[in-house]
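note to self — DONT lose this again. spent like an hour looking for the file last time. sequence + predicted structure for the chain T wanted, 385 res
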Amino acid sequence: MRVLFLTHSYPRVPGDAAGSFLWHLAVALKAEDVDVRVVAPSSDALPAHDVFEGIPVDRFRYAPRRYENLAYTGNMASEVQRSWSAKLALVGFLGSEFAAATRSRREFSPDVIHAHWWFPGGLVGTWAAGLADLPLVTTMHGSDVRLARTKPFAKPLLRHVLKHSRAVTTVSNWLATEVSAMVPGAAPVVAPMPVATNMFTPGGERTGDRVLFVGRLTAQKGAADLIEAFALMTSEAHLDVIGDGPDRATLEERARSLGVATRVTWHGAQPQPELPAFYRRASVVVVPSIGEGLGLVAVEAQLCETPVVAYNSGGVTDTVIDGETGVLVAPGDHAALAGAVDGVLRDAARAMEMGRAGRMHALALFAPESAARRYAQLYRSVAAR
């Protein structure tokens, strides 16, 4: 069986975190006799056609190089909203992805087209699949669902994509509930993306009282909440921040004003192979995001047997089971967040128990072999229909 992936995020170089779960899925599908080819946007110095880590990739240009800033930045929606050049680039993006998908479809002859994120990939997928009378599978990952929930123009497009999809999946139960509320009768299947279980493993010695945050420095990811909570903690812990984003300068200034700057280290964005060492060294990983589609950071931490404290919000609740594989607190409650992190740091035995339980839970849900088996069955089902 052959499946064509359409996506706006896919690894550009080895170790790139962008869309890495799609690469893990594509590789794992080989064991299920499913060959994958990927259509993804270009970036600096990338060839138009490549075999990336064993998976063929066709990359498309969509604007003059200086304006190709919609993909791989994590802020496509905000860029399009604030800039006319980004709006024009989006038109080019949609047209170029459709043209690239059509070329790849003719060369590859897929049995199924699988679009990741309903926008832009799912919308383009309806055109490409409809033109060739192929079944379309659309997977929603989180940011696309937030788009549909917050932008009035998006809901009719979402309904169009779901209507023309032979199957719809989400990567968490929370996302499935959100989609069903917006589009009654959608009935999405919950099918998480895989995580690199061979990369994120336990090992080494933990450094005492180290708190870790991994993610883009934006309001949605909640780093600002963590800084506020960190200042309320009774433990004299150290905070490592992995990631970059538009809020970094503001966050650094807030840490200084709260008197905790000397206990915070800003590491910037790190390639994925560097992350396991941070997870293994940390005493606790904090995921204070709101409306997270899945919460990949929580999964990676659990695979390294690191306990997780998170907000009781979004798809993170599929992974962090309160009191068993981590601790959940009410979103926005800085005092509760501080208390939960302090509690984990004070009780090493409980932290170790939650870490081990978290790894077993994550392996059951997110092993590449399991994800590939679910999606291979889905592809064959929609192709047969």
